[in-house]
Amino acid sequence: MPLDQAEVSARISAAHETIARLRQEVARVVIGQHTIVDRLIIALLIRGHVLVEGLPGLAKTLLVKTLAAAIHGTFKRVQFTPDLLPADITGTQIFDPAGRTFNARLGPIFANLVLADEINRAPAKVQSALLEAMQERQVTIGDTSYPLPEPFVVIATQNPIEHEGTYALPEAQTDRFVMKLKVDYPTADEELRILGLYLDPTADAVPVQRVVPIEEIEKIARLSASVHVDERLSHYIVQIVSATRKPAEFKLGSLEPHLAYGASPRATLALAHVAKGYAFIQGRAYVVPEDVKAVAHDVLRHRLVLSYEAAAEGVTPDRIIDQILNVVAVP
């Protein structure tokens, strides 16, 4: 029997307190980066993969590892290199001389949170193996398919300043990431706190506490799916994505020379899902236009293919999204 809206609101309010404990535990170890933490929690709830772009040394690995420990989930980190093979990620078959049989040895992809470090350093054959796992949520080794654990979220990182020995991710793969997040430097106050933790000899002795069992995350994820999206909000989301494809129809003809391709229908679905997740962690049972605006850049920036003219003029996807949000009518 479906829950009425009042009961959904009450359960979401209780879940909001649970999410707050999770945020607090992660913040105890990772100083700052509150927006990134919230986006990763949303990704965990909606089972979406995330592409993270940031310079080295900004605690990307620590953040994912801490989040996994706080929900008592499994965490694996894979360093992507040009000589990496698909079997290094998915696993392979090992011959057992005693039994004269091949036994499957599962790879590091079999974890709740998988950190694909510097994903753009791996060649196409590795990317395709990862793409199957991300899309199908299973891995085929030999003639047997193995389901991946639930939840299963890939968090991939890219270094924005190093391009030697890298492979551009194909659009078909970037489209599978529900969000692309940009990690920035901490503020001076946050960096001072980081230094204080580093100089504290007892800091490493404090383990991350399991504040939310992974089974509870499963229940919260199902509850987050019940967040209501009004028909007018659905229309608003479709209008935003449509404006990336046919900007002239929204009186944005100046964007046409800068956009080679707009966002796909998968972007429409992702924008709705992420907006629902954002509303949920704010403690609301319904989506408002501000939720859509808050996550639009994260959902769309990696799905816009810009022209050479845009690159020459220094036009960025975020700037184009800003213009679209300013023009599309808010319901």
Major pleated sheet: 5 strands, parallel
Poorly predicted regions are: none
Distance between the termini: 31 Å
**What is the CATH top level name of the largest domain?**
Alpha Beta
| Class from secondary-structure proportions | alpha/beta
- Quantity of strands, as a count: 11
Number of helices: 13
CATH fold annotation of the largest domain: Rossmann fold
Determine the strand fraction and express it as a percent band.
15-25%
Helix fraction bin: 40-55%
Average pLDDT: 85
Give a description of the structure:
This protein is 47% helix and 16% strand. It has 331 residues and is an alpha/beta fold. It folds into two domains: 5-81 and 113-126 and 148-224, Rossmann fold; 231-327, Orthogonal Bundle (Helicase, Ruva Protein, domain 3), CATH 1.10.8. The protein has a five-stranded parallel beta sheet. β3 (91-96) and β4 form a beta hairpin. The longest helix has 25 residues, at 5-29. The model has no long low-confidence stretch (mean pLDDT 85).
Characteristics:
two-stranded antiparallel ribbon; 5-stranded parallel beta sheet; 11 strands; Rossmann fold; Helicase, Ruva Protein, domain 3
Indicate the topology:
Elements: H1 5-29, H2 34-46, E1 49-53, H3 60-70, E2 75-79, H4 86-90, E3 91-96, E4 101-106, E5 113-117, H5 124-136, E6 138-141, E7 144-147, E8 153-158, H6 171-174, E9 177-182, H7 188-199, H8 214-224, H9 231-245, E10 259-261, H10 265-281, H11 289-300, E11 305-306, H12 308-313, H13 317-327
Parallel strand pairs: 1-8, 1-9, 2-5, 5-8
Antiparallel strand pairs: 3-4, 6-7, 10-11
Helix pairs in contact: 1-2, 1-3, 2-10, 9-10, 10-11, 11-13
